[in-house]
Amino acid sequence: MAAGAAGGGVTSDTYKAARPWLLLPAWSVLALLSLAPVLMMLVYSFLTKEFRGGVIWEFSLAAYDQFFFDRGLFGDEPPKIQWTYLAIFWRSIWQAGSATLMSLLIGFPTAYFIATRPARQRPVWVFLITIPYWVNLLIRTVSMKFLLREQGPLNDFLLFTGVIDSPLQIVNTNLAVQLGLFYSYLPFMVLPIYAAVERYDFALSEAAADLYASKWTTLRRILLPAIRPGVIAGCILVFVPSLGSFLAPDLLGGARNFMIGSLIEEQFKGNAGNWPFGAATSMILLSMVLVILLLFARQQARSENRGRG
Amino acid sequence: MAQGKLDIRSYRGFRALTFLCLVILYAPLVVVTVYSFNDSNSITTWDGLSLRWYVDVFTGPESAKFKTAAVNSFVIAITAATVSTVIATLAATGMIRAGRFRLRTLSFGLISLPLMVPEIVTAVATLIFFNAIALERGLLSIVLAHIVFCIPFAYLPISARMQGIEADCEQAALDLYATRRQAFTRILLPLMTPGIVSGFLLAFIVSLDDFIITNFVKGAGVETLPTAIFGAVKRGIQPNIMAISTLLLGVSVVLVTLSYFVSKSDSPK
Predict the structure, then answer these.
(1) CB-CB contact of A228 with A299 (8 Å)
(2) Overall number of domains in chain A
(3) I want to staple A107 with a disulfide (CB 3.0 to 4.6 A). Which of A189, A238, B122, B257 is the partner?
């Protein structure tokens, strides 16, 4: 027995030695086509703009300066804070936050309900939740627009049932964008919460009930703290893609409901574009996302340590 | 006892909200599918069932444009999914079977990088990179960009499948004087196949569905189905767009269902 185990150890060591090299194709492709482009974008954000798109290779802080400071029409006035772009960022945060909250309100009960089904049924429920995610985001957004339109099926239905007297104007409002984002990323809220509730030990809830805690108290004080990492993961998975989304604001929001994604897209379309400014705005968005992900990673590590201790 | 347990677990209203959630997720898709069979010229009035807009997609005035776009989409998706699945299979074998090695966390971070960076940022970065290395924008640039974001989608089902395969299987083969290559191709690869197929299908779907990154790197004149649909929708939702959307929607649903059943089939014990 001991000899066999030792023999196995030897083969497996020789076997293992070569394995990290299998990662070489993945490393090279991702380093070349994922990491290098981000670094190049950082470089471009410090270059001078070429008027027909593209850049002139000359160092400049103009892109970041344009984002944060307003120096008047001719650029010679004392700098004031530029609110235009900060307002777009703030609107994006607000829209993404609202979409996240809506997803949480619907997604949490759904995830909980699925996780408390008999084990054999759960994969089917999860599959039903994931199917819409795999459908083209563009088609889903167009479908949402079709549904919410002034003469669309939703208004027809509400008029028919007598809930409203005149059609609701939803498309081209903030609400339409929020609904679009909520609809786009709802499955992302359900899945991590589901995974967390599935791992949750319901004996804890029973203990709380035995000690005369009401059901809602049990939910609030016992279940929620236990599955918090899952809830936070769900919120991040909805919030982060919503923040930089382009399709929902573009198709559902109209011109007045500009978000970061549209601002960035505009810089690379046609002759009016400003590549360094687009690159700088992308860098600012990426930094925000990285900060959120880092905070999340720290929080996950902390709650894991608590679980162990 | 069982009754009491059930009672503690269930909350009033959660079942109703779950059904609401499913209605929300499916309603827009069902509505578009139903209206794609509408006989009317207008998207608002219902004139009865008809396949005329499907006929229009294949033979109508815009059919040539859709056909080119569809061919582009499928060529790109097959190429990107194949390349990314090969890369992901090798990477998953390396990650799972190599035990602990330096750069492990970094490798995983690199593989999931395309999932964490917002799509619009990836699009901008890729466009800038191709511009900097003077790569002409066209089919090749689209395929290269797609390979990158397909890798994590191909990787996840493959590595999930591999976690269920005991290292003993290959070791037994090696102990019986199989070469390392034989142990991989004869033992490990067949066991991994469902994961690989599932990963390929998911990569194919995300490539077929991508709009934002394609829109940035495609260059003038080259269209894929999503970019063609977007261009048409910007001029207003037309009935033929609903038919073509329904077709694309159907392809995604069929493929993801296939992927689900393949990955579930004879799961390793």
Answers:
(1) no
(2) 1
(3) A189
Q: Alpha-carbon distance B172 to A83, whole Å?
A: 67
What string of H, E and C letters represents the secondary structure of A88-144? HHHHHHHHHHHHHHHHHHHHHHHHHHHHCCCCCCHHHHHHHHHHHHHCCHHHHHHHH
A84-109 residue pLDDT tens? 899 999 999 999 999 999 999 999 99
pLDDT tens across A245-280, in order? 999 998 998 777 789 998 999 898 866 688 999 999
> Which residues does chain B have within 8 Å of residue A202's beta carbon, measured at their own beta carbons?
5, 8-9
Question: How far is B119 from B152, CA to CA, in rounded Å?
Answer: 14
Q: What is the CATH number of the domain that holds A249?
A: 1.10.3720.10
Give the nearest chain A residue to B99 (CA atoms): A16
Pairs across A and B, CB distance < 8 A: 264
Contact flag A215-B252 (C-beta cutoff 8 Å) = no
Assess if residue A156 is contained within a domain: yes
Residue from A30, A145, A147, A198 to probe the interface with B (highest B Cβ count within 10 Å) = A30
* Residue segments in chain B with a per-residue pLDDT below the cut of 50: 1-6, 268-269
Asked, for residue A64, whether it belongs to a domain, the answer is no
Of residues B245 and A156, more confidently modeled: B245
Q: How far is CA B259 from CA A15, B158, B188, B209, in A?
A: 31, 12, 20, 16
User: Is A253 domain-assigned?
Assistant: yes
Q: Give the residue numbers spanning the domain of A261.
A: 83-267
Local structure of A81: helix, strand or coil: strand
The type of residue at A301 is: A
Instruction: Tell me if A227 is assigned to some domain.
Output: yes
Structure tokens at B157: 């089902």
Cβ pair B127:A286 closer than 8 A: no
Please list, in sequence order, all residues whose beta carbon lies within 8 angstroms of the beta carbon of residue A220, skipping any fewer than 6 positions away.
none
Q: What is the DSSP letter of A193?
A: H
